[in-house]
Specification:
The protein is of the alpha+beta class and 65 residues long. It is built from 2 helices and 4 strands. The protein binds iron/sulfur cluster (SF4). The site of iron/sulfur cluster has 15 residues, from α1. The site of iron/sulfur cluster (SF4) has 15 residues, from α1.
Length: 65
Amino acid sequence: MKIMVDATKCVGAGLCVVAAPKVFSQNEDDGLVIVLQENPPPELHESVREAARLCPALVITYEDD
Ligand code: SF4
């Protein structure tokens, strides 16, 4: 899996961090999303899909292997 985010459209809602805290974080200053692992291991894939579903700005996309 490869994760792509368009941080310029992130609204800092933080739902991705709640859904997948090992994969996403937020910048302390502006709250914008930070991807901790662009190629997360299989056990984290479902949490990434959940984060993509929950993101209100729809900025999280991914390619499955
Ligand atoms: S859920 Fe979406 S809008 Fe909210 S911080 Fe994560 S990427 Fe940004």
